[in-house]
Design a protein that fits this description.
alpha+beta; 13 strands; about 15% helix; globular
């Protein structure tokens, strides 16, 4: 509840959809991306690799990937992975929305530290597994999420760190996200545009 209040409870209650634009830097390669989210279970992620745009869509329990004039259905394991990714998007805002709505169960674990500062650790149980939340003890802001994700070589320990929070239409959202996998930095994402409850075109999740 502390984290929900810190991020903007009144806006979070009425959150229906979100559009995000940003840029990911992985191994020195920069890739612009766009994300479209419509609650409760629609998620589209489009990324530009050089000249080619690749789009991943999850709509309920179905999903597909498209790019280069081709389209193929996503296997259930990939759909599950993208559902997990949604929980951790842009400061874990949809995880906190689930806690507020009662669809995600949260349990206090213990006090600890994160980045050298006092933190409170809370475990959040979702249909896609457990996320460990690191909350700034003073402000309640969600600083990081830790969770397991399935990589090419098996399960991976992922930590997403949320930095430079800024007020966006009543929600305090990070402008930078650093992703560590197995204790090593994998990517850094910068967010430059967010639109809340602006409506998502229906065909975003069908074509």
């Amino acid at each position: 509840k502390k984290a929900v209040k810190a991020v903007g409870e009144s806006t979070l209650i009425n959150l229906k959809d979100m559009y995000i634009e940003g840029k990911s830097n992985q191994d020195g390669q920069e890739s612009p991306f766009k994300a479209y989210i419509e609650l409760p279970d629609k998620y589209a992620f489009e990324v530009l690799y050089g000249e080619m745009s690749v789009k991943f869509v999850v709509n309920g329990d179905t999903g597909y990937a498209s790019g280069g004039g081709q389209r193929e259905d996503l296997p259930s394991s990939e759909i599950d992975r993208f559902k997990k990714k949604l929980w951790s998007e842009i400061g874990g805002i949809f995880l906190l929305k689930g806690v507020l709505d009662g669809t995600v169960k949260a349990q206090y674990v213990k006090e600890g530290t994160f980045a050298g500062a006092p933190a409170e650790l809370v475990a959040a149980q979702t249909p896609q597994g457990i996320f460990l939340m690191f909350l700034d003890k003073k402000t309640g802001i969600l600083q990081a999420l830790r969770f397991d994700s399935m990589g090419e070589k098996g399960p991976e320990d992922v930590v997403k760190m949320y930095e430079n929070p800024k007020d966006v239409q009543g929600l305090k959202l990070p402008q930078q996200i650093t992703v560590n996998v197995g204790g090593e930095a994998k990517s850094q994402n910068k967010i430059w545009k967010v639109k809340i409850n602006g409506g998502i075109p229906a065909d975003t999740f069908t074509k």
